[in-house]
């Protein structure tokens, strides 16, 4: 015998709606890709010799990036761009990704393959070290690297659209020692990597008091 009790009917309808919502959330919700940067940005000089035997100095960046997707549907990172410049300057450098790189057993960076779309499966993450290059041959202007505070932006596309749908911002402080190392590399025709902390999140090991620990890390 069926019940015509309105309360019973409402409860049944509510349960059905909840079941539908749970099923959609668990199985049909579209991919929700995000990105996060590592602790450092790594930069190094690059060189190009023209037919007239003139050396053109460019600048390369290696940036560790994590792409993650906790939704039940997979997605794809179609492309990534790096925009970087000094905070006290209106001119920024907008770069396309060029290659994926890896760290070999000796701690050196090696090209892995050309940058290409990255599939990110459902409820998973992908870690990549992405290389970006700025060269006067490509951008039409030398990279004016100076000591100072820099702003960094990463833009990502998950579809073939004009505007990006992912954005991540960070900052770093290029200090005197970084700049001097860069100039020394150029003088010696080297392309050794220079590591700079992002958002000042890297502190050296330090011997501190209990009070200092509280000041540094306790939530107020």
Question: Could you explain the architecture of this structure?
Answer:
The structure is a single chain. With 220 residues, the chain is of the alpha+beta class. It has two domains: 1-30; 33-217, no CATH class. Helix content is 21%, strand content 43%. Strand 2 and strand 3 form a beta hairpin. It is extended and about 90 Å long. The mean pLDDT is 88.
Question: Could you write a compact summary of the structure shown?
Answer:
With 220 residues, the protein is α+β, with helices and mostly antiparallel strands.
Layout of helices and strands:
Layout: H1 6-28, E1 33-37, E2 40-49, E3 55-69, E4 75-77, E5 79-86, E6 93-103, E7 109-114, E8 118-120, E9 124-134, H2 136-139, E10 148-157, E11 166-174, H3 176-187, E12 194-197, H4 210-217
Antiparallel strand pairs: 1-3, 2-3, 2-12, 3-9, 4-8, 5-6, 5-10, 6-7, 6-9, 10-11
N-to-C CA distance: 62 Å
The overall number of domains is 2
| Overall geometric form | extended
Main beta sheet? 10 strands, antiparallel
Counting DSSP H or I runs of 4 or more residues, the number of helices is: 4
Strand/helix succession? HEEEEEEEEEHEEHEH
Report the mean per-residue pLDDT as an integer: 88
Helix content: 10-25%
Structural class: alpha+beta
Summary tags:
single chain; 220 residues; alpha+beta; ten-stranded antiparallel beta sheet; two-stranded antiparallel sheet; 4 helices; 21% helix; extended
């Amino acid at each position: 015998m069926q019940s015509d009790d309105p309360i019973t009917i409402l409860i049944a309808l509510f349960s059905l709606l909840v079941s539908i919502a749970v099923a959609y959330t668990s199985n049909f919700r579209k991919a929700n890709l995000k990105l996060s940067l590592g602790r450092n940005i790594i930069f190094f000089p690059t060189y190009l010799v023209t037919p007239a035997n003139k050396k053109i100095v460019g600048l390369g960046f290696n940036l560790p990036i994590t792409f993650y997707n906790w939704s039940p549907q997979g997605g794809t990172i179609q492309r990534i761009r790096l925009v970087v410049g000094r905070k006290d300057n209106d001119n920024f450098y907008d770069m396309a990704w060029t290659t994926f790189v890896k760290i070999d057993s000796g701690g050196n960076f090696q090209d892995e393959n050309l940058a290409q779309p990255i599939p990110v499966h459902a409820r998973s993450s992908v870690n990549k070290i992405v290389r970006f290059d700025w060269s006067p041959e490509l951008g039409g202007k030398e990279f004016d690297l100076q000591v100072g505070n820099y702003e960094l932006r990463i833009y990502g596309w998950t579809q073939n659209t004009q505007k990006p749908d992912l954005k991540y911002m960070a900052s770093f402080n290029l200090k005197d020692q970084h700049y001097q190392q860069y100039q020394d590399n150029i003088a010696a025709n080297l392309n050794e990597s220079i590591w700079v902390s992002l958002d000042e999140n890297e502190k050296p090991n330090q011997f501190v008091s209990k009070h200092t620990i509280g000041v540094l890390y306790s939530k107020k």
